[in-house]
Amino acid sequence: MRIDLHTHSTASDGTDTPAELVRNAAAAGLDVVALTDHDTSRGYAEAVAALPAGLTLVTGAELSCRLDGVGLHMLAYLFDPDEPELLSERELVRDDRVPRAQGMVTKLQDLGVPVTWEQVARIAGDGSVGRPHVAEALVELGVVGSVSDAFTPDWLADGGRAYVGKHELDPFDAIRLVKAAGGVTVFAHPAAAKRGQVVPESAIADLAAAGLDGIETDHMDHEPATRARLRGLAADLGLLATGSSDYHGSRKTCVLGEFSTDPEVYGEITRRATGAFPVPGAGGTTA
Questions:
Q1: What is the Cβ-side half-sphere exposure of residue 59, based on CA atoms within 13 angstroms?
Q2: What would the pLDDT profile of 2-45 be if each residue is shown by its tens digit?
Q3: What is the C-alpha separation between 208 and 240, in angstroms, rounded?
Q4: Rounded distance, CA 64 to CA 156, Å?
Q5: What is the pTM of this model?
Q6: 182 conformational bin, left if phi > 0, alpha if psi -120 to 50, beta if neither
Q7: Disulfide engineering: 241 pairs with which of 44, 144, 234, 272, CB 3.0-4.6 Å?
């Protein structure tokens, strides 16, 4: 089985619609794909309706968190999307995205960059606007060469010249809320230092003690030695070790299935979840 547990669609900051994403996942030879848009479950219905036969969909989300001033992302799988407390927190995060992005546009304009809110809103479309959309505006303007190049201290990295904070969950609260909604939690790309400051491994141990289920060890932003170290840490802490592409369509260079999760680990995730169940493909729509 080929299992990719971290992808994004146009419901947040990917470039594939949810329907396109599941069809592309099947074409890439995946057996299981997780839709984990940022802080939203808006893409679920479209993905399920288009789900090809032979592909299983895991519903999820990537939750925005912050610990001791350091941003981190928590992957949540197979939770009840209508559980009120978790839904309320996700809505708070989403509602803060527009004023945050507008603040980044203002900072960029103050730095002499001719970006406009209208440009960023056009790029975001119906998705939850975020830093990748502002980054793509910088690419369009020729300020940077790629979306990744915008995530530096000069521009949009945490603490960067044009960075603006937003409402984010405490990761310990995120674990509690996801578990209360019947879901499973995995710390996304915990050692992706190229994105900015990362939390120390002692914090991962604290999160594990609080009920964290796993860490995403195999990811494009982890060098081979880092992946090996994280697998050892997961074993020491009794955590599941996952691998994923973090696919964003054409917005990033990663491809579906670039890294994958062991079937036994996937099976354990589904066994632990009580809020929702994986959805097997039934042929889907062709539109």
A1: 28
A2: 999 999 999 999 999 999 999 999 999 999 999 999 999 999 99
A3: 10
A4: 16
A5: 0.89
A6: left
A7: 234
Give CA–CA dist 16/74, Å, rounded.
Answer: 22
Handedness of CA 154, 97, 12, 188 (dihedral sign): positive
pLDDT given for residue 272 in this prediction: 98
Q: In this structure, which amino acid lies at residue 195?
A: R
* pLDDT per residue as tens digits for the range 71-93: 999 999 999 999 999 999 999 98
**Residue where the block lists tokens 């929702």:** 276
